[in-house]
Amino acid sequence: MKDNNVVDLSTKAPHTHQPPVTDFWFAQVEVRLGRIERIIKRLEWQIWMLVCGAGALLFLELIQRLAPQS
Question: How many C-beta atoms surround the C-beta of residue 24 within 10 A?
Answer without folding.
Answer: 7
